[in-house]
Amino acid sequence: MALDRQSEKAGKPVVRGGPGAGVFARLALVLLILAAIITLGYQYRGYLPDDILLAILGLFAILGVFFGLAALTGLVQLFPGARQNHFAGPFLDQYPEAVVITDHRDRMVYANAAYGRMTGNEGGSVPPSLESLLSEEPESSEVLYRLTQSVRAGKDGQEEFRLTRALSGRDGDKARWYRLSTRFFPVTDSRAHTRNYNIWQICDITEERQEQERYFKELQKAIDYLDHAPVGFLTCDSDGKIRYLNATLASWIGIDLAGFVAGTVALADIVDGEGMTLLETLGVEAGQRVTETLDVSLRLPSGRHLPVTLLYDVTADRDGRPAESRTVIVKREDSKGSGGAGATQGHFFDDTPMAIATLDRDGRLLTTNTRFLAMFADLLKREDIGRGARIASLIDENDQIRVSEALGAAADGQGEIAPFEVRHATDDGRHFRFFVHAASGSGPDTVALVYAIEISEQKSLEAQMARTQKLNAVATLAGGIAHDFNNVLTAILLSADHLLLQSRASDPEFADLVEIKRNANRASGLVRQLLAFSRQQTMRAEVVDLNDVIGDNRMMIERLTGGSDIRLTTDFARELWPVKADPGQFGQVVTNLCVNARDAMPGGGTLTISTRNIAAGEVAALGLREVPERDFVLVEVADTGTGIAPEVLDKIFEPFFTTKDVGKGTGLGLAMVYGIVTQSGGFLHAISEVGTGTRFLILLPRHARAASEAVAAPKDHRGQPIAAAFSEGNESDNEAPREEDMDLTGQSAVVLLVEDEDAVRRSGKRMLEMRGFTVHEADTGVHALKILERLEGAVDIVVSDVVMPEMDGPTLLREARGQYPDLKFIFVSGYADDAFAKNLPDDAKFGFLPKPYNLKQLVAAVWDMLREG
Questions:
Q1: Tens digit of pLDDT for each residue in 364-391?
Q2: Are 550 and 700 in contact (CB under 8 A)?
Q3: Cα separation of 162 and 209, whole Å?
Q4: CB under 8 Å to 14, separation ≥6 — which residues?
Q5: Which of 81, 250, 703, 760 has the greatest number of C-beta atoms within 10 Å?
Q6: Pairing state between β 566-571 and 605-614
Q7: How far apart are CA 326 and CA 314, in angstroms?
Q8: Mean per-residue pLDDT for 144-158?
Q9: Residues 84-93: pLDDT tens digits?
Q10: Helices 855-867 and 758-770, interaxial angle, to 10°?
Q11: Which residues share a beta bridge with 188?
């Protein structure tokens, strides 16, 4: 009983407001009403009959007796709040943390015993309010102000603050920590009136804070121990990004911890390639954890490598992918003292840049270094070494005999074993060079040492160079052949025109002459394709948008590839970079590729033409070693056809190579495409898979627009650039001349014809003379100058070949115009030589006639030039 009384005394609140005053007020009101009724009854007693008065008094008596009995039986309560507070009140009174309730005017209406004890007023005296208690120090007053504003807005809040002394004032100057929280608490009474109260709770958290400080001190001490441990340590996430590294490792690899941001450095940034390959190929099963010891090298900012040993611990997720890892790193030179010379040799064995393995007589791998494991990481695991893994399983079966022979020679103790090349067992694109040496004194089972170097890139470059040299040689040959063919075709066309002029349509040989001329014109088209392949044609380069060029040719492409079974789609990039190319020639390139794609889809399919920009940093991702890292515009022509076999793919750009039936192709289409793209400074690459389709990738360099795009170029007699003259000369030879050029007989002019080919010169002289011209002929430029000197310049026009022995056409022009500045010139050429444009003055005007040409074209060109004067 004493304990109960003590608990009851300890739980007595120090402040209790609430509904008491309201109850007494209401009770007084009831008494006042009763008194008023009695007074009225007494004053007006004479006006009421006695029986009615007795009835009223009896009614009041019955109601009074009923209320009294109901109160005794508990049917009604005089103070209903007493039952409601039967649990809530004692709970708050005895709550161990200080609780204060304030009304909407911040007046304290309740404070429990714990608040009294905290403030030192548990003896029954009224404790100070929160405002007066916490306003003495700035930190606590600011906290109280913020929480007051928060609770007035209907929001709960909580903050912690520190006081220089306890709230009770009993602990002297000891600092204490407190947590103050508040809550908005609306109360609705029996009359549905709502009053707003605020519940404040304050507790002393000094011991909690002290425990946290002890915990953080211990944690900081552990981190400090880990940071300055004699070994490196790091952790990585599932993406291989370093989330933490200690100070020791940071000092080794030159990372400033003050500026280090987690996730900005990857493990691959500090571990060299071979070591990273070993880490990535560790076999970790789903949900399992693997710990592996590896000897690798770390990359330092100075470019040097630091040999280390990794204790790598990694966990795999449910999908078998590495989730997170922890790594302990030890410098390998730190263990030299325990290993002696043997350890040093082991480090040298692992750190050498050449892959090394030791083998027994049957080709089993006894030991390997890190480089060897990294080289064959897709086929070989560290745990396989010394457990029966054979070197034969790493290379192509066709090359295994070479390894077997080399091992036999090493077992016999032969000193000179020639190195040889082998291929990867599963990847034909990877090549290696093996050096095998007899192993003397390396162990009882060790027969041979194998040194391996990967030469895949070298082999690829060799193949590319061989292909380029082959195409260049063929191009040089094709260019020479084309030039000679042009001379032959010119003689044939001129002779055919001469015979046609002397024949009538009714003559039996007339049809044969027409056929000769038709086939000569067809041959001239083939010659133009050869010139395109040999990159010896002049191109009319312009700054163009390839989307526009392809769009302009779309109608022709649809007509050539038309049909319900082939669907043409385009995917053009927006804001495509400009390139410098001949729009006509490039349109021919795309059209030719689309026609080939049509032929590759006999059963129908989809033909897609797409364009996009390739930034310099994206070029390497294309896998084209010959393409430099610069900005390109990519045009891709892709089909879903039959594809091209690998043995055919390497030959498709060679002239006259075709897989089509006889009479369905000349084999010059792709050769011409290759020549045009290459002459434009671009690259052409084909990717194909049999049964899937083919993709042709055209890469043209991005053109950087300069302040002035135009460069003064040599002009012809009409003031057009030389490129335009060449382009016009490549039009169809069957084009009819203008009406005024049809008959020029009777015209008088002196022509000097300079041509080193006798047949062409004789035919041209005869044709011009038939049209009334006086013709002098010369076989070289030197001979032409002598004729001009002999005639004292009495020549109206010079018709000269461009490429001739002793003196070429451009040199003849400069020498002749030096003495006869008004002399007119027409150049004739089978193809455009670079010297033709380089050796001419910028303001030089001349006519141009491409070979092969016919009679009408020759006469029209001469007379057109003469009329310009």
A1: 888 888 788 888 888 887 777 877 888 8
A2: no
A3: 10
A4: 111, 112, 113, 115, 116, 121, 122, 124, 125, 126, 127
A5: 760
A6: parallel
A7: 7
A8: 88
A9: 556 667 777 7
A10: 70
A11: 194
